[in-house]
Amino acid sequence: MEFLNKIPTEVIYVSIAAIGGVARYLNHYLNEGTFAWRHLLAHLIVSSFSGYMFYLFAINILGFPDGSLALISGLGGWLGVEAMKMLETIMKEKIQTKE
Predict the structure, then answer these.
(1) Residues 1-18: pLDDT tens digits?
(2) Residue 67 burial (10 A CB sphere; 0-12, 13-18, 19+)
(3) Percent of the chain with pLDDT over 70
(4) So what's the pLDDT on residue 68?
(5) CA geometry: angle at 19 spanning 49 and 75, to 5°?
(6) Structural contact between residues 52 and 19, judged by C-beta atoms closer than 8 angstroms
């Protein structure tokens, strides 16, 4: 298990975000009954990106403690595009209050 110490922290959080996205897609599959590999791949890419952005936002801007970062990146992965819309809204509000 020593090899885990050599994995960059960001890779771990991106992986957690990807799992969140896959979980959301599989939940959709269980409810709707339609499965497509290309949609799963698209969910995987979007959720990895959005989960990582959620992670960076939480750690750098909101100052969340390290213990909550896995939860934040998984949530960002689950939310996918909705996570990015949420971050966009927060950032717009922060920029408007500074003006």
Answers:
(1) 566 666 788 888 888 999
(2) exposed
(3) 93
(4) 87
(5) 65
(6) no
Which residue has 């717009």 as its token pair? 92
Residues in the chain: 99
For helices 37-56 and 9-32, the axis angle rounded to 10 degrees is 140
Phi-psi region of 80 (alpha: psi -120 to 50; beta: other; left: phi over 0): left
Query: CA 93: distance to chain centroid?
Result: 21
3 class by beta-carbon count within 10 Å (0-12 exposed, 13-18 middle, 19+ buried): exposed
* pTM flag (> 0.70): yes
